[in-house]
User: Fold these one by one.
Assistant:
Number 1:
Amino acid sequence: MGSTGAGMSAVEVGLLLLFALTAGCCFGANVTYDQRALVIDGRRRVLISGSIHYARSTPDMWPDLIQKSKDGGLDVIETYIFWNLHEAVRGQYDFEGRKDVVKFVKLVAEAGLFVHLRIGPYACAEWNYGGFPLWLHFIPGIEFRTDNEPFKAEMKRFTAKIVDLMKGKKLYASQGGPIILSQIENEYGNVQSDYGSGAEPYVKWAAAMAVSLDTGVPWVMCQQDDAPDPIINTCNGFYCDQFTPNSNKKPKMWTENWSGSFSSFGNAVPYRPAEDLALSVARFYQLGGTFHNYYMYHGGTNFGRSAGGPFITTSYDYDAPIDEYGLLRQPKWGHLKDLHEVIKLCEEAMVATDPQTTSLDSNLEATVYKTESGLCAAFLVNLDMQSDATVKFNGNSFNLPAWSVSILPNCKNVALNTATINSVATISKFVRQPSQEGTIASDAFISGWSWINEPVGISSDNAFTKLGLLEQINTTADRSDYLWYSVSVEINGNESKTVLHIDSLGHMLHVFINGELAGRGIRSNSGHEVSRDVPISLIPGENKIDLLSLTVGLQNYGAYFDTVGTGVTSPVQLKGLQNGSTFDLSSQQWTYQIGLKGEELGLSSGSSSLWVSQSDLPKNQPLIWYKTTFDAPTGSNPVALNFTGLGKGEAWINGQSIGRYWPTKMAPTSGCSDSCNYRRIYQPSNCVKNCGAPTQQLYHVPRGWLQQSGNVIVLFEEVGGDPTQLFFVTKEAQSMCSSISETHPIPVSMWNSDEETRKKAGPTLSLHCPFPNQIISEIKFASFGTPRGKCGSFSHGPCSSRRALSIVRKACVGLRNCSIGVSVNTFGDPCSGIAKSLAVEASCR
């Protein structure tokens, strides 16, 4: 052993060693893999990862999101790189603000976590056009995601750009940085067969190209069974325990465990129970997995026009452990944190050997990791979806709830069961700001509304004329959601009963006759086109027909998704003319305008001199821009806008787009229930909420975008609404609860103690205020015995300690967090011979 250095004390040496261990990801590391795991500096690792997309939150949110991920037991943060975000114009790169991926990666490193950089550059991710920039579509001879030279040249150029950017900042693990993995392509295996003979050469080329960039860390391809060596193929899905890599030299890795699902305008909002998510994770590690990633760990927000689609909502909450606003979703976050701690107790045994699984009975099994040196970890599984079971294992009896996994880090004692939640639950609510009733116009911090009418039809000097109907994406290059189609028709007589027939691939269509709204059509979520017959009245002489076609997020998934068109298609016809004829307008001379006049004028900044401020504010009319100023809601709680009363459009705060809003798009009235049975194979349709209500009514306004006063809201209201009904809310915790039985496993923190100490410790109930600088202000309920109900509706059972409330108050009130032993030693025994529980509901301020 070498010298520790002259003049260094033992304490200094110890601190230096501790720092090196806790921040090891930020010193030069050799990252390889074998059949069991990723190997970092010669040590196999069991790694727990979570997806956070830097562009779906704001830089001021990043440190807190990363810290909460670390506190939740993550080792790795995974993020996509979005090509169209960084190179919206070919050759012009933007890595500033929300796009500063280097800053994001450095913050992850500062927290002592690793990074998995999913370069793609196809992302999918419910992101507009799958992350591809639209200019790519116009390169001559290009075909996406196949053995096509123009596409491969562009893909290699951008991938190399990102790799060089990271290398230049020394962010790969081999350089002392946090990046231990990179991904090339994304879920190509799901669509590969559609690309025919060009697919296999493309996969081999992409793999070779990635390896040639010499990152010094492994590359992965997800959902790619034929990923060539040395690329690791990985699994995505709700369950990946049965996944097997395509080589016995590669580890079993799960790059996307879907913590919930995305939502679409017009649908109910899906969520995934914590018990099922935990089971899926435990099963994966039980059966040999060593790298697992939550998609998403924090979903965030689709700001601007970044949502893909069509119809994907602005909220990308994903029912993730950290919600859209950056708050912990409890009990999901806490239950997974407990699971992660237990998995880590098993790590040494798991990486040392392969698992051995035996059947205990129908739907019952035991998996053991056991080494010659005596290390042992076990997983006991009950896959029955209805019945609990008692099993014999290692000389003892264990109760296994239906659809659950029990983990025994020493092969003797259960540290956690996935169906038994020992975590704090929280009840949050959105509180109107200011809290008094009234419309936003009368609230003290709003200064009044002004507006500008968006012209109907052609109003731009950049308009152009073409024969026939143009496809929308090829025309707009996605510079706007909107494309005007305008045509003039000469009518000899009075045609009061004519029908205008329109077919459109657009996601929505507004029909104007002589400047007046005549009708609109909305494509269904499952449909591929809008087909409408609009009754119209035409006058003698010239008649103007203006069609406003629009998109709500471009296609982001599927084979050849880039070729999916939008816009008005043939035929467009006048039917039922007085002479009995039909007049086809499709091949007439049409005038086109890309985008809105207000977009051309930059009205979203709010700085135009054209704003009208008068008392007769127009309401419930289409195509109007609105503006007002406001003071930021006080405090530090997350802020949202409630769009009650508005129709559809886009909103900006201080020039930053908070995304598309569409509160009039309602979810179906059926399909929801107050609770969801987690004891079944999960699908998003199993567990949904918000039936009969707007799919999304609240829209996140990042605190980092606000100043104390003088903030500007701009709305473009497309279909008609009342802006004075708009109001701010802040998200606040109403209650936090926990309920734990005295038969619960002991705290994970006690597992390194001797067995006698563990037995004496017993289970512990912990409370923790969800917001910084809060303390526990009130104990609303406490019962030790046989309490009933759930958070927000607890009640005393027939057995209840009279001392429970006073004991919990004394232990917790005035503190940010507290812990209480759940045993008769603490509360006395109100009913001998009965298993007892402690249930507590508290509030913080």
Note: The chain is about 15% helix and 30% strand.
Number 2:
Amino acid sequence: MTTNNTAPLNQENSLLHDFRLDQVTVTDPYLVNAFSKEVLYLKSYDLDRLAAGFRENRGLPARGEKYPGWESTEIRGHTLGHYLSALSQAYATTRSSHLLQRLEYLIDELALCQFDSGYLSAFPEQLFDNVENRQPAWVPWYTMHKIIAGLNAAYRATGSNTAYALVTGLGNWVHRRSTGWSAEIQERVLSVEYGGMNDCLYELYTISGDERHLHVAHMFDELSLFTPVHEGRDILKGKHANTTIPKFLGALNRYRVLGESERFYLEAAQQFWDMVVLHHSYITGGNSEWEHFGDPDILDAERSNFTAETCNTYNMLKLSRELFKITGETKYMDFYENTFINAILSSQNPDTGMTMYFQPMATGYFKVYSSAFDHFWCCTGTGMESFSKLNDSLYFHGGGSIYVNQYISSTVLAEEYGIELIQTANLPYQDTAEFRIRTLKEPARPVALHLRLPDWLAGEAELTLNGQKQALNLSGRYAVLERTWSSGDTFSLRLPMKPSCHTLPDAANVAAFRYGPVVLSAALGTEELAESATGVDVSVPTRNMLVKDFITPAGQSAESWLKDFDQHFIQKDGELAFVLQGTDEDGRLEFTPHYKQHEQRYGIYWKLVEADSAELQEHILQGKQRQRVEDATIDSLPVGNDQYELEHQIKGEHTTVATWDGYNIRQAGNNGWFSYRLKVLPRQDNYLSVTYFSGNNGKTIDLYADGKLLASDTLMTDKPRSFYSKSYLLPAAAVQERTELEIKFVVPGAMNGIFDLLRLMSGFDQTAALERLSFDTGALDQPFNADRSSYTLTVPYNTQAVALTAGLSHKNALLYCGGILIDDTRPRTVFLQEDSTLLTLTVKAEDHVTAKDYTITILKNRELV
């Protein structure tokens, strides 16, 4: 492999600049472990297996078997693209000859696999034809972005002529293909996820200087998206988040490459960042539910086990650091610090190095990590990249100044400034970052150090230079120390911290807690940590048990408890752990840094509600409803989502995907149709749950199960402008021994379709009964029997209250005490009247309709004391 000495174009229309990765060394033990685990993972790949699909596509003899999971599907090759980027970053940091050899081997292998046209991929070019012709294809342009980005990174890291020839040839192929697009075909291409094609092509232009690469980058700039966002209109609802974020990375790169003439694209990226961060993000910095944006400021309603896809976080951090370099605004680095710690560091298992796909924001779930060589998710790829560049955003420089943005033990060898800066920090366990200077050359010249003052500061920062306290010289939210530095100079920055409470815009009494820069979560045990799957081999956590996800303040409202939060959230002596005071959870919940929470169920967000309030009862009801749907779901897919539709073997004719009112619709018309294969339970009744929209009232849709007519339905609802679900019975006699059915939708007339989620479900249990009943005081007249509904409890005369414990025959049933819906997982205090108290317990079965009453007469016996 030879080296290309051609000077690249001048990029970076920026105020601030990166240090090279080999100039910044991280010494924080937690991050050192994270990086070392990633490098070991990169070294453990069989390179011949990674490249196998490329050789196969070129017709070359196999040297290894393709990896399974996503690497044996239509997006095979995306992992190699991520791998090249991650390996290039790890090599740029370490200058390891072993990592360089791996890069060289892959580049040489890919050179053998490139077609004369410049085309290079692990799948046939036919998939790009499918996109242009509205035929099923799993995001080939998305995969192409990963390959081009990986080759760009490999060239930047090595200067290899071979890498240069590969990526420029591939860019030329993209240009030739796109020049044949009509406006209609271009729109069709841009409607299917294409990753950051504009971003990687602008990057390629800075390497090659070839106007063809600039022109084709423009072809992937989506003005129909950029324009409304630039105008401040939040149109993100229903958009696939990790499809959308990279588009704005490309918009920003257009500005970086071409300068002020393209300011529109910078402003669009800034507006988009504000929308996502201020209106679509959780406390960790993560966003989206089931990979899609929802309504702005509707976050509590979207919390689930499918929230906060880690790829989104990776891309939002890339956007944040580039916006910071251009503008110097500290808000971008505030977000970066928060999200880096609480979402990125949080996403890696420190024992195995494996990373996460979704990061649940619903209380009671747990972290699920990738396997090393089985799944190859998109988040496996971005995980490689995230943990091979842990040092890339700690320090920046420009205008004679060095900017310290993260307080993490590390060293920056600032050769351009003649100094080495050594930082020792252990936030949040200690509140002071200490620095030592070593000069690299004489004579020294003045250098200004800008120390970021974080947005979580709980008081005034304190700066000490060579043992002497200094007045803060502020420039925005930076404390500035400027002097001619000498070897041995030391300074320290104290950053006071305290606990803080953060609610959600659509739920003023749903709170999460922080301490300084870290989000806190409470561990909820290791019971039943069973995983399930969604999409194409994506592992997700389940919650096949009832988890109490609310807190009841003692004798006060949620509002007053939150107002006096600092009196109710107490740090344990000598530990970075916090407990509650003045709630029903005192002594049970313990809150610790979430990024270190790896092997248990957890809760970040907690709903604070008053005992027996209508709001608490509604919360319990909604929780039971969600749980019963989750438990009854045999199979499901979000319609219109390519990954999930392909996993369910979509077929169809005259069918398209659109978005209406923020929800995806799979539609057809004029005898067009579409079908999926869905799992069913054999030998029992199953139910197909379909979501429709009221705007289709009067239109007909025919449903078939394995070719037999299930229903011919003329849609109708009396609810204006609303989405609603209908359930269709698949009787056991029709299902028989099958474990899968083809569900087909035929639209004989005007365009019509299905929305949002399609589910195949089992029926709800109809048993309304208590399984057990006991009291902490007194004796029942007879042992409890679920079939008997009337009892007498005798207690000592001076008893003021009894604690009732009741178990339900089904965990998703409802329990009412005196007409009040209660939490059946906790004892219930019943206050007694003077001589006798009549207590009525009502059980509603899992169907929430079938009901049974139990009555207990509680008598005070004067003879018992």
Note: Residues 30-220 form one domain.
Number 3:
Amino acid sequence: MFRLNLKIALRNLWRNKVITAINIGGLAIALAAFILVTMYFTYETGFDKDNPNYNDIYIVGRQLPDLKTNNTPPPLGKVIKAEIPEVVSVGTMKMSFFEFQVTSHNGVVFLSKCLYLDYDAAKMFNIKPSGGLIRPESTTENLFYLSNENYQTLFPNNKSGKPEMIGVGSKSLGMTGRLSGSIFANPHSNIAFDAISVVKEMGLGENYGYNNYNTYIQVKPGTNIKAVENKINALYKKELLKDGEDPKNVTFKATKAFLDPLKNQHLRPKAGSDANYKILIALSVLGILILVIACINFTNLSIAQAAKRAKEVGVKKVMGAYRFQLALQFLTEILIQCIAATILALIVAEIILPEFNNLFVVNLSIWTANNSLFWQLPLILILITLVAGVYPAMVLSGFKPALVLKGNFQTSKQSYWLRNSLLVFQFSIAVVFIIGLFIINAQLKYMRTQDVGFKPEQVVYIKNMAYFVSPSKFDPIRDKIMNIPGVKSVTVANELPDGSKGGKNRYTIDGKEQNLSFTDVDFDYFETLNIKIKEGRLFSREFKTDTANSAILNEAAVAKYGLTDPIGKTIKGCQNKEYKIVGIIKDFKTLGFEKPVEPAIYSINDPCGNPKTQIMVKIEESRMSEVLNTLKSQWPGINKLDGDNFRYQFLDEMYGRLFKKQEQLQSVFFAAAMLTIFIAILGLFAFAKYITTGRIKEIAVRKILGASNLQIFKLINSSFFILVVIANLVSWPLAYILTKKWLETFAYRIDLPLLPFILSAALTILLTIITVSIQANSAVKANPVDALKYE
């Protein structure tokens, strides 16, 4: 019986080649998209899952009045381990904030992600260097490991990963160090590094004012996390009071500690952006919807062919076939199509995968031994077969033999309504994607064309290892660079305006205390970036006090303090350092468009600031390549500490990375919109073919009675036109809600426009008319005699 069903299935599929091709092709494209989305979802949700302590590790964070941060002081971890019995281990780590070079006789590597951590943190995260993880014997011992890739670059002949001597920093310094070995840097972990330094204890001699470490805890399985969080918060407050904090301080009262699980850190950290999570959810929903649309096509076309199969069903029932046997036959046909579509989908996915990897900056592969896709695909295949095939199989196997053999067969009204409802659903999804694509494009255009308050164009960031605490240290380098023809200005700061968040400190004006972002700058910082002054003045060498106790605020800081006449006022900062406010600059969007401009203070002298290492050079556009070549050749003489290798980046390219996630979303919506439209049009094409074929005699009679070709086209298009209009009306409220929610994630955004809704309706109606008219054309041009000669 199975062989007979298989033969009949293959013959039926071959006899209806166009419908079969549309079914298999549409499903294959949808499955290919779904395969890529499934792989990406598995990858993004799998960070650190290979860690045996995955479910029991939490990071300790701090909630301040206006932000959340994962930065904590090093003494906090020690008291947590000593005072809270539910905590079995505490690890502390810190990432380097600048790039430095490491050399050997074979080459040089630049380390930008050097992770400093204690032994307990390394053990907690299952970090295993070559030769095994060793506990440093003293507080001065430092075990330094390079990632396998960097180690092989420096020592290609050392395959065992044994210790070696290396040069650290510029060769002119003559600094050497001992490399303890190599280590595998897991790219699928939140703890990313290109080198690690394992010490016995982190933050020796530092108190609760040094909030620049990450503290991780490992708790006992089954621990009440909320209770532990409350204990840590109480302990932190107690320690702050012991460290001299004023209990009446507003900031102290609002500050509390919190715990965030390791599993949240990649996608949904409490102290960070959840943009990755939103992109992943959007991508997953799109993948599912595309697959649903393909299944709808399958179901719709299978039901639409019911009339062609009616007599076959009637004869088989007269011959004694049971309903479940007929249903099984139809499911076999659908399963064959699904298997063919799956094979084709894997081929399509393999072709698209390089572009997908490039877009999302991942390295996914279908043909890997541990790919969960190999057990997921068979389940998806069975699910699609059941979802797309059960209802058509029940409809086809339920025909009554007496009726269909007399020629009185008609599909039920339920099938009619179901087909139309599914068609409306298909186009509704397509319309949502089209509207979403138009609005994403409009927002991105707004982001690219709006004035961000500064000009990163023609500004080159030169990577550097030297510290410039005061202008006098930087002046010799500035003078040498300024002597190069084509250089317009030079400055140095502790942070770049590239979207990276700087440090924050508490500052007080007239007794009112607030947290401000601080940037330690040098002369010509604002001029180099073309940041506009609103009132007062910028830093100038003519005022000697600027290098000692002058400060500039932005508009957001002035608004936060509620100042009406800020120039000349005194602002008190870290270590009770007092500054005189000499200028107010206009707000500029260093964090992009998703987050509002943070209240900020700029000063040249900051006792609690970070070292100034970020050199920025503004260059005439017409002489860019000439100046860069000169800088490269003269760099050893300009900056001896960092003169071995001249490395630079364009600041506008660095700032442009802030748009990366939204550009990814734009690409996803473009692909989704194209796929949904394509699959929906495929289904409409086949459905229109069936409807037109079914009405061929009606069309012939109408033509004999004098109907024109235009009237026939209008007749056939009218029902589809109504369905597409309904689809637009159904989808508009949903599209409005979704796009409005998305726009609300931006601090600076466009107003929701009406044009995308009108364009989506015009586009879908036009495509429908064209598709249906192509199918109707053959029926309209046919000779009525051919359709009626047997009547």
Note: The chain is about 50% helix and 15% strand.
Number 4:
Amino acid sequence: MIMEKIILQKWLILVLMLCISDLITTSFGANNSVTYDHRALVINGKRRVLVSGSIHYPRSTPEMWGDLIQKSKDGGLDIIETYVFWDLHEPVRGQYDFSGRKDLVKFVKLVGEAGLYVHLRIGPYVCAEWNYGGFPLWLHFIPGIKFRTDNEPFKEEMQRFTAYIVDLMKKNNLYASQGGPIILSQIENEYGNIDSAYGSAAKSYIKWAANMAVSLDTGVPWVMCRQADAPDPIINTCNGFYCDQFTPNSNQKPKLWTENWSGWFTSFGNPIPYRPVEDLAFAVARFYQRGGTMQNYYMYHGGTNFGHAAGGPFITTTYDYDAPIDEYGIVRQPKWGHLRDVHKAIKLCEAAMVATDPTYTSLGSNLEASVYKTESGLCSAFLANTGTQSDATVNFNGNSYRLPAWSVSILPDCKNVVLNTAKINSMAMLPKFTPQPLKYNLDSSGVLGSSWSWFSEPIGISKKSAFVKPGLLEQINTTSDQSDYLWYSIVMKGDEQVLQNGSQTVLHVSSLGHGLHTFINGKLADTRYSPNGNHHISVDFPVTLNSGANTIDFLSLTVGLQNYGAFFDLTGAGVTGPVSLRSSNGGLTVDLSAQPWTYQIGLKGEDSELSSGSSSLWESPVFPKNQPLTWYKISFDAPDGNDPIALDFTGMGKGEAWVNGQSIGRYWPALSSPKNGCVDYCDYRGTYRSDKCLKKCGKPPQQLYHVPRTWMKQSDNVLVVFEEIGGDPTQISFARRQIGSMCSHVSESHPPPVDTWNPEKTGKKVGPVLSLECPSPDQVISSIKFASFGTPQGSCGSYAHGRCKSIKSLPVVQKACVGSRSCSVGVSIDTFGDPCIGVTKSLAVEATCA
């Protein structure tokens, strides 16, 4: 008998291995076929319902990629989508770089090894709140070039780079037709938004781009997003907060959604946008309800704009995007978990969805049923209440269903609701940042700041590479974006009627932005920025000049280049004039605009490689605080533990920081957002827009800046800071990204967990279940901070008992959960008794892990 069991176990293991092998071969076998028809993408002859998510490889580190991909797979994704960033890979024409965070091949291979597909959006224009839309600056200087139109120099460069990427993928056998994971590619990006500005040349350009892409023979379909006239065989796709009403431009093409915006990006000077998960889940379910078969979250993990990657301009270093996986690689709950449940529910409907088109039936005002029913008897349905005010009860298929406002119920068998988008079974987590001081040793004086070295950036011209030109030069054409900074300097002797000794005159300056510091005779006279949409600066302010020679220095700066819009590449920056002086009494005006100016690209500290920490320019005596244009350096030990970490720039103004020579990006905690516009509660019901749900009004939108742990050693790390406007670096500290509490609040009216749905199951019906799970495998639930079955009130972190509560709540939950990594508790009177007969009850729990 024992021998029979052993043989049976070995047989089961063999069968399981064969099944796994078959699955891998099916997904990534040689010569896989990827086509499409009017319903879906067709992979190896089989229509598929697919869920995708955007992860941009350079916005995280290679050490993070595996974990991000696995969490995406665990969240129910089938596809990882990424742009390809031309400026990163070809910083100098003909010189390519695919190292470190730029290792596109490694990233694609990791996705494939996890059993997921890839959508490679080559562009090569990407937008993406990325500097210059992803174009390298050298492209701008090619003679006769005009971007994104029927222009031969541009088309030649675009084709050359696109072909290079396609060939690179082919050499590594990464297309599905070669057995690899890439099943889709994209050419161009949201050109339909701005193509009218390019006139008739836009139409010929789009046709050329489509033909060029197809000619590269990838063996997989190509798409164009937001391009209604995308020519066959290119699939035109939808981008937006909602795409349920989108229709492809041919009845032979499937309905695909390439960007479902999971939140929105953050700008310096603005509050932080977020998108409630109930609304996001509603949008997803509505898309599949109305015939969609592939949608992509933009972003699923947003990540970080390291270095000067952020465009915009004025886009923050964080690109968190309120995504299901946050900037630090931690799942955002309940968004990640609720969407995972939505994906599972939709996949239960896949067989019916790919077999037929949906039929639509009105169930009343703002009420709709979509049914996928086949001749063989398969039937799946979606019931939607698109109203924003009232819940509704509908009759469908002989049964009654309660539909909350702005929600979709999913019925895999056209009878039983497996999920409603407005009812969250997934737990929530309260993230926290635990402060940790910067660990460094004071010298023998014991004075705070004594361990810092510093260097004062010279005001005005200090480099041998400076040059003189008549008139005012546009900044981007002058610097080629080699630095954020450009010095303009002029030495002048004033007209006797204007510049009498000690008299005041008015200096007028006009600039294209993004920021401008004005120095008169070496002293700061004025600072201006233009972050809120209007990037022009025009200012008049009084200055006191000497009767002899006077030096006027402008330090003009950019905060990331324009990344979007028609002719965005022609958007300028810098002091373009006029620049003039006039007497305060309204007399003589002196125009300085056309006179010779001396120019210096960048800072002396940049040329001296202060960011690496190894320059000989560093000084130590008389530590300066709150001084503009100051470089700081200190050695430190890595923070304790393995949690993701950030630098807290409290006390600093604006600038850039480097850890061991790696730029963590621009910081600007001195700039707060407007005080108005945020609300304590954001109603998910109704159409979402990027300014609907905001937080951190009246505060800096970003105070914490992600530092990947892999950039640091255990000790002897070097932090370098360039402070532009003045700050106190001794206040800089670290913060560890941790989870404070995890919570769940599940009602008796919730459907049971999606995993428990089985139409063939007999016996006792499974009811709603509350589940908790510690985020780390080495943690267990250590305590239950709150538990109440009845009518609990509040939200995670602030739960309170209602009038109705079961005395069994806490002991039952403690027994089920404490000491385990995960636990599940049935939400019913069978578990807790009935503390208030006739009242719909719910269970709310807050727990901690250790």
Note: Residues 1-27 have pLDDT under 50 and may be disordered.
